[in-house]
Amino acid sequence: MSDPTVFRDGYTRNLRVNSKKGLHGKLEGEYRPCLVAERDRMQAIAQKGDADKTNAAAIKLLLEKVISWDATYVDEDGTTVKSVPVNAYWLAHLAPALFDSVYLIVLGLKPSDPSDPSPEAAGSEDRDYLDQLAKPETGAADEGN
Q1: What was the pLDDT predicted at 27?
Q2: What is the pLDDT of residue 115?
Q3: Count: domains in the chain
Q4: Which runs of consecutive H residues, i.e. helices, occur in the chain?
């Protein structure tokens, strides 16, 4: 089946973020992709530079868009794995790199990870992610030069 070019109401996609050693475990679920207007609203909020408002808006968006997931944590005894629901509390407690990946996938700026990643591809994705974080912001005048 090919990827759609338009999304109808209620359309869902598979969410998958492969584990990143030392950062976070694997996460799978379903989500509803953002439309262009939703993505643009989130980018406008982020560009204002208020981290608290940006994070609150991102959590609110993900709460609306992430339908299900298999997120877990290890209980205090260190052996019992517990599932957690999709809610604002657990979204805010995702590992930062995992949160960023889910957010970019839902915004439509990154595809879900492959179900059987090669080590080479996983390594290049990590480098791409780190390169993106390290990139200085440029103005529109700098683009294309």
Answers
A1: 97
A2: 87
A3: 1
A4: 36-47, 51-65, 88-92, 96-107, 119-134
